Amino acid sequence: MNIVNWPSNLQFSYLGVRYKPEYEQLMLNEGVTLPPSLARAMPKRRCEFLAGRVCAKRVLTKLHINTSETIKIGAGHQPLWPAGVSGSISHCDGHAVAVVVWQEKNVMGVGIDIENIVSSELAQSIHEQIISETERGYSRLFTDFQLFLTLIFSAKESIYKAIYPFIHQILDFNSVSLINVDLNRCELFFTYNTYLQSVFGRTEALVVRYQINDGCLLTWCSVSQKNLF
Q1: With bands split at pLDDT 50, 70 and 90, how would you rate the model's confidence at 226?
Q2: pTM
Q3: Given 54, 63, 94, 181, which residue has the most CB atoms within 10 angstroms?
């Protein structure tokens, strides 16, 4: 996957996922392992998990970090990264990605999400869980509603992954709100809603960048010290 204007400080890896026994073995040959909790999982789940962990292994290698152990799963199902590193993993049907960065005041956390664009029928049935009526007004800027809804779903997922290590809470989709869109720069701007403003004491906008490729979209978000406590 070729990404336009990817930030130079973020290390990124992508793998296409195939759902065959030989693909699973190929991933295992990269030196990653399945946790006991996934030993009896469906082949699709195993292949996607392993591909995501291989991506994580590759990006950590770019930071010159020992990757002899597979990134473990935390209590909140989040990846557990080495000290001083922020990272994120995502996968969907046919795709897996990972991103890592050394933590510093300008990048304290990072989140990434990859999604296949949902059908029009699914978009209409779930949109009230994902966006507010105010946010829906921005859909007029996009070619179709299902693209817009998938994009906002993915963007919020990226934000929540970026801030999860600092709050350790599962958040609703109304925890942040879309406040602006820059189509030329492929950027979405969000603000914390009341609860997260009270947690962080911050109101600065969060920027999510995105790219759309052949029915698949990628979003990523980094949070700095000014977005947190």
Answers
A1: confident
A2: 0.95
A3: 54
Written as six digits, the tokens of 172 are: 């609703």
Q: Which CATH number fits domain 112-227: 3.90.470.20, 3.30.1330.60, 3.40.50.2000, 3.40.50.720?
A: 3.90.470.20
What is the second-level CATH architecture of the domain 11-101?
Alpha-Beta Complex (3.90)
What is the residue extent of each domain of the chain? 11-101, 112-227
Terminal-residue alpha carbon distance, the chain: 34
**78-106 confidence digits (pLDDT tens):** 999 999 999 999 999 999 999 999 999 88
Residues flagged as binding site for CoA: 45, 53, 90-91, 113, 157, 161, 171
Cβ atoms 209, 158 nearer than 8 A: no
The DSSP secondary-structure symbol of 195 reads H
